[in-house]
Here is the input.
Amino acid sequence: MIKIVVDAMGGDNAPAEIVKGAVQALGSDKDLKVVLTGDKEKIGQTLSGLSYDKARLEVVHCAEVITNDDAPTLAIRQKKDSSLVVALKMLKEDEETQGFVSAGSTGAVLTGALLRVGRIRGISRPAVCPALPTAKGGKVLLIDAGANAECKPVNLCHFALMGTAYAKAMGVKEPRVGLVTNGTEDHKGDPLHQEAHNLLKTLPGIHFVGNVEGRDIMSGDIDVAVCDGFSGNIALKTTEGTALAVMQIIKENIMGSFWAKVGYALFMKKAFKNIKRVMDYSKYGGAVLLGIDKVVVKSHGSSKADSICASVLQAKAAVDSGLVPSIKEMLSETDLEAIGAEG
Amino acid sequence: MIKIVVDAMGGDNAPAEIVKGAVQALGSDKDLKVVLTGDKEKIGQTLSGLSYDKARLEVVHCAEVITNDDAPTLAIRQKKDSSLVVALKMLKEDEETQGFVSAGSTGAVLTGALLRVGRIRGISRPAVCPALPTAKGGKVLLIDAGANAECKPVNLCHFALMGTAYAKAMGVKEPRVGLVTNGTEDHKGDPLHQEAHNLLKTLPGIHFVGNVEGRDIMSGDIDVAVCDGFSGNIALKTTEGTALAVMQIIKENIMGSFWAKVGYALFMKKAFKNIKRVMDYSKYGGAVLLGIDKVVVKSHGSSKADSICASVLQAKAAVDSGLVPSIKEMLSETDLEAIGAEG
Here is the structure.
């Protein structure tokens, strides 16, 4: 039995959709326990309309909520009775609680995880790691997607190691790691990426395929796309924006032609629903915060029940696969000092 | 009558597709003259099968070609009889020749334009500026898309000014300029983008709407997306990769369902052809090199005749609209020192 704590008050659709999503996850996995932190009364209102295994759901009341308007560090320090801080305290202190899900402010979740749970020893900068769909039907991990606007070469080595551990935990045998730069040649990029390239080439434990470009991220030819947090965030959000723009352009082209409209109405509605689901990856499931000493999944702010359910199951799968211990093992086996990455 | 010189030997499909594209452009604009530089015999072979106004097409023979394998600076210095260097010499020296198009190596075109034509006075770093389609049916200029992997804040101010001048030349009345960072809040980004944000806020002559994210680039809510060349290149190529991945995912969803396949075959083929054309923007038309003292258009390496034709007409339109003089005027009216951007 694995216990996942869920911040019931984080996100645009909290608490109703968060509660529904958590209950949905309970229904699809009998080895799962869920703790909801938040306003007991509001949570109870949603719960009263649902049927679920009461032995596997616990509600812990908290009076405060951290919002997007709060300054993360201050809020984590001061709002001690917030759904986020109470959940993180439980994650840190309760051995049975091994994973955490929140759709709240990214800054607050990241700061909270750092201050209240702590980093894996040896990782100076935890990173945000979402999984994107690829043209070949698989997934690619993007790390760092925005936790660190400024990075050092050693941080990018840690991202490569953690991304590899996560991809392996997801079942990829020998994850192919690419460094996202402005060209495929070895010398491309600014000094940060040039130095990172040289380190990654000699870094044991990863399968480095070299520099890749933005167009390679979703090609299906790599499993882990290593980025600094600044350009990684731009790349991630550019995939979202482009996917939306493409869907819009397609829609307009279809709706602009009578016969295409007929074809759509008669035959293609279901296919497009599927497509939308795949392309809506930013809202489906969450990004794992790698480098934190427990499993932390950040769900999209606009998450609805389906998404929260996916994030809870994703957190449980990460615990099941031993993600945190594998990262620790990879780090203990890799002498970053020996390749000149530290100091 | 405006004369555009075209590097007939640059690109994967040179010279046949380049020659065909140039001839196509001549056919659609009676005020256009084209000079082709390259192997006279090979160019002649393609020309012999085409009909065109011979008075408006000139071929200048050159014995050498600069390829993707050449080191740009060395090649520009040594291959003096290459189609690229001869074309740039004409662009620099011949007053009647006001624009240039090449589908050759980006590095060589950029270096060549810098060394052989020169910068606009006051612009320290010319930038690559492609136009992308938006979700609202318009265009957005991305600047810099890859000329400068390392930038200073003043460079980003120049990009904003040049992008504004270009958008105005394309008919946008008051172009909205966004700075692409890892979040919309004013303080987001690394020190480069934080400082650039503060400068852009006070920069006269532009309509700065603040920080934008990768997802806003193609939203249609901005006309000019200012980026450093490193993250701008990643953003540009990520849009290409995502568009391809989305088209692939759509295709598989359609082909995986019998009825969707029927609908596609009966009704939607044409709509999808249109969509492919819009989304194939990277191969259609070219990116303007802004900051060079004449109009330089870099067409995609895999350009075919249609694309080259579009690039030639794009170069002519830029000349017609007075793009280079407008940039000079904007610079002369903007005291970058006064806002603390220089030095």
Observations:
- Chain B touches chain A through 65 residues (CB under 8 Å).
